[in-house]
Amino acid sequence: MASLWRQLQQKSSVASHFIAKHGSAYYKQLLDQNQQYIAKEPTVEKCQELSKQLFYTRLASLPGRYESFWKEIEFVKSKIKNRQDLKIEEVGVAFLFAGECYAWYCVGEIVGRGFTITGYKV
Question: What is the phi/psi pair of residue 82, to 5°?
């Protein structure tokens, strides 16, 4: 275990030296490549304008999302109606998806309780 810890320390040291040496060049290159996304006047008003643009753009996309949602619901309804035609792979994927959703719910509950199983902190 100690050798594994030492290897991890050495690798993190090498990585930090690499970042210290090449990080600023990468940062400058990244900014140069994405210059068109940088606001020319970084003022509070410009940030508020961009925030409103994002909000109303997302708001305008709701009708399309609503239609897609109901198309998905209709697809699921048709699959349930014709469940005798389902392949075992489709049933397996559905069970895996349901299991994953349940697991995320349980993990969310545990996180919400402060990473305790019972809810009581010791």
Answer: -105, 45
Instruction: Give the domain range for residue 69.
Output: 39-83
Residues 1 and 34 in one domain: yes
Look up residue 86 and give its two tokens.
């389902």
Specify the DSSP class assigned to residue 35. Answer: G
SS3 34: coil
What is the helix (H) or strand (E) element at residue 54, kind and residue range? helix 44-60
- 105 sits in which H/E element: helix 88-112
pLDDT tens readout for residues 22-67: 888 889 999 999 999 888 888 999 889 999 999 999 999 999 999 9
* Buried b / exposed e along 101-113 (16+ C-beta atoms within 10 A): eeeeeeeeeeeee
Is residue 75 located within the same domain as residue 97? no
Report pTM: 0.48
Cβ pair 25, 19 in contact under 8 A: no
